[in-house]
Design brief:
Two copies of one chain form a homodimer. By secondary structure, the first copy, chain A, is α/β, with parallel strands linked by helices. Chain A contains six helices and eight strands; from the N terminus they run βββαβααβαββαβα. Chain A is 32% helix and 23% strand.
Chain lengths: 258, 258
């Protein structure tokens, strides 16, 4: 963990060729729970800049999300990895991961409270322009950023990467104020076609500004190298879809952070 | 019609800040039929460059497609608008348009022959790098570029904008060698859900490299200002989806023309 130097720079946002990514572990609270997130930004950039919240997959906050935050910092954003599960709660296997993810998927109010607590940390960061904030999430985190949107969060946009899109309360689509980009594996066996249809209907009925991209040949977890490369398992890395969805996210940010 | 100056430049492709778009009407043949296409390129650019075939909507080759070709020329491509219907066959109303489009949608072999004839003109153009060629199409033209791909054409990619995706011969998906990008209005009432499902299955079964983007709030003809702005008619312009799909096409080209 490098030291965070708390400086406020008032000049226009610019990313130096000499990027120096600074990272910091940040403890914060939601209700009585202590959560532990991870901040990354380019110390060579000047001025307030857009912020991106990163929400973890079902395994909790791991090096994977931290690396994504560092990639975002290299692009000139302040990135903050939220911790939904709580400090020290880092599932060691899929059984523990399923229990944790299931707890929050079964209690959307708590999930929304947890993700909004992370958003709050990001928006209050002195380097962040709070009018230009977005959230991205992977798998469970994709579900979570959609719930963040459904909570009525005042942000510019959310991006779900292979997130579950089902909703126990589709009427909450009417709360969505931000733009929505869904990056979906066309062969993802974990997303039921009827959930996808219901999700589209929810956004359509609520007149949300949304886009959904289906990547051919991609299954669940297509952005995650640790998922291996066997599509028959239903979850596998797909370099092509990973690169394209990252590019699609960048185009989305270029539009919403104008 | 400006005069085409037939020069071959051997240096690397570059687009000058002083772009000068040259256009030319070109007559060519498919079987006994005479077709009349429209070429556009930047005369201030040097060297062979990627070529883009543009296929018209059901009204035939109009100023709309010519303007798209000029936009593509401004981006540094050699663009050629194919003429599927034949010289002088320019429907004056939707009844005539329906008859013409119906003729070719009902005879996919003829449609493939016609679009390949246009591709041939483009690939043989002295300014075009024939290894870097793509095709885009609108509505009927979207259907046509998908048929071009199904014909086994040796090109880098095709982009359909609100094209009909149904196929009388889904097994022909196995012939597709190029990458496929489908830009689709999420609320397009003219595309049956089962045709969309069958299309995805065709590409999946054939292991094609494909992507499909659904633009929320967009109906049929979303790239065409002349379609008006009344979504309830099923076809309407949608500036947001128009701009995004054009950006998505540019990202696609950046990838396939590397």
């Amino acid at each position: 963990m490098k030291k965070l130097i708390p400086i406020v720079l008032a000049t226009a946002c610019a990313v130096s060729a000499q990027a120096k990514i600074v990272t910091q572990t940040i403890a914060y609270k939601q209700g009585d729970a202590t959560l532990e997130g991870y901040l990354a930004y380019d110390d060579a950039a000047a001025g307030k800049r857009p912020g991106v919240l990163v929400v973890h997959q079902w395994l909790g906050l791991t090096d994977y999300e931290k690396h994504r935050a560092e990639q975002l910092a290299s692009l000139g954003y302040v990135a903050f990895c939220a911790d939904i599960y709580g400090k020290g709660i880092r599932p060691k296997d899929t059984s523990e991961a399923g229990a944790q993810a299931g707890k929050y998927k079964g209690d959307r109010a708590l999930l929304r409270a947890r993700v909004n607590a992370g958003l709050d940390v990001l928006k209050k960061n002195e380097l962040v322009d709070p009018r230009r904030v977005a959230a991205i999430g992977y798998c469970f985190g994709g579900t979570t950023v959609i719930e963040l949107a459904r909570s009525g969060a005042d942000i510019a946009g959310v991006v779900s990467f292979h997130g579950g899109l089902d909703s126990p309360t589709p009427a909450d689509g009417k709360n969505i104020k931000c733009k929505v980009l869904v990056c979906h594996g066309a062969d993802d066996p974990f997303e039921e076609p009827e959930d996808l249809t219901a999700f589209e209907k929810e956004l359509r009925d609520a007149k949300v500004d949304w886009r959904l991209i289906k990547y051919g040949g991609a299954v669940h977890s297509f952005t995650q190298p640790m998922a291996g490369n066997d599509n028959s398992k239903g979850a596998a890395y797909n370099e092509r879809a990973d690169k394209r969805s990252w590019q699609d996210m960048k185009s989305f940010f270029a539009e919403i952070f104008q």
